């Protein structure tokens, strides 16, 4: 099962919820949350680039007692900069100009495009044992709502709860009253883009509706601006996840589009 984040602050949990959370602090993305012994944790921090689009600044992975700090084109293990491919203590780090990948023998794979998109795949032995922005991995999606006992949260409250408290952090929590309204405009266009012939092999592999929802959110958030980030990030995420699920997406980018 895969948890991912991409583009305009979209998140898709292990259980398949899709939500948006625009926080720019350091957050627990996915961690083993058993009381006794935590096998791994993945933290992320986003920042806004000069064009106001979010990208992931760094990822901090702890596997047992081993820490990996990733920035674009940089991997630091236990405080030392390392050359990739790097292998030690059951952890392999690979990187090229496009991706950084981390494989851990305990059942974790992480793939980052060194910009906006990160995906973590976990072995099913972690079912029901995780916490963080990726959710609890118990197989039950709760679309748009996160429950804790009797209380339900919106996605911003939920995201703020995952913040890693750091004494000198200079970052504001996003305002919980500003949770993004759902958006149903542009459905036809999003559907047309995601069901084009390039994605014929993806239809049965992924939940199309989730990506249509994310695409509509993007179109609304960009207020109809045709900037490529707004439209392309969710489509490229759909294409990546399709490949990851064993599909073969065709060439969907053109000279004029993305």
UniProtKB/TrEMBL annotation:
<dbReference type="Pfam" id="PF08742">
    <property type="entry name" value="C8"/>
</dbReference>
<protein>
    <recommendedName>
        <fullName>VWFD domain-containing protein</fullName>
    </recommendedName>
</protein>
<dbReference type="InterPro" id="IPR050780">
    <property type="entry name" value="Mucin_vWF_Thrombospondin_sf"/>
</dbReference>
<dbReference type="Pfam" id="PF00094">
    <property type="entry name" value="VWD"/>
</dbReference>
<dbReference type="GO" id="GO:0031012">
    <property type="term" value="C:extracellular matrix"/>
</dbReference>
<dbReference type="InterPro" id="IPR001846">
    <property type="entry name" value="VWF_type-D"/>
</dbReference>
<keyword id="KW-1015">Disulfide bond</keyword>
<feature type="domain" description="VWFD">
    <location>
        <begin position="1"/>
        <end position="172"/>
    </location>
</feature>
<keyword id="KW-0325">Glycoprotein</keyword>
<dbReference type="InterPro" id="IPR014853">
    <property type="entry name" value="VWF/SSPO/ZAN-like_Cys-rich_dom"/>
</dbReference>
<dbReference type="GO" id="GO:0005615">
    <property type="term" value="C:extracellular space"/>
</dbReference>
């Amino acid at each position: 099962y895969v948890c991912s984040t991409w583009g305009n602050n979209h998140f898709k949990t292990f259980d398949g919820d899709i939500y948006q959370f625009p926080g720019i602090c350091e957050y627990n993305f996915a961690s083993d949350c058993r009381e006794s012994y935590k096998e791994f944790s993945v933290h992320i921090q986003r920042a806004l680039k000069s064009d106001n689009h979010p990208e992931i600044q760094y990822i901090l992975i702890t596997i047992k007692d081993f820490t990996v700090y990733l920035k674009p084109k940089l991997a630091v293990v236990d405080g030392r900069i390392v050359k990739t491919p790097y292998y030690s203590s059951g952890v392999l780090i690979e990187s090229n100009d496009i991706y950084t990948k981390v494989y851990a023998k305990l059942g974790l794979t992480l793939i980052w495009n060194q910009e906006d998109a990160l995906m973590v795949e976990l072995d099913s032995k972690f079912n029901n044992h995780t916490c963080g922005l990726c959710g609890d991995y118990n197989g039950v999606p709760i679309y748009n709502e996160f429950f804790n006992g009797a209380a339900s949260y919106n996605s911003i409250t939920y995201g703020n709860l995952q913040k890693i408290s750091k004494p000198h952090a200079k970052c504001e929590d996003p305002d919980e009253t500003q949770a993004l309204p759902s958006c149903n405009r542009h459905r036809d266009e999003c559907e047309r883009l995601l069901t084009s012939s390039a994605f014929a092999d993806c239809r049965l592999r992924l939940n199309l509706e989730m990506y249509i929802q994310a695409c509509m959110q993007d179109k609304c958030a960009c207020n109809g601006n045709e900037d490529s980030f707004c439209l392309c990030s969710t489509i490229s995420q759909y294409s990546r996840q399709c490949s990851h699920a064993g599909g073969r997406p065709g060439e969907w980018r053109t000279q004029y589009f993305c």
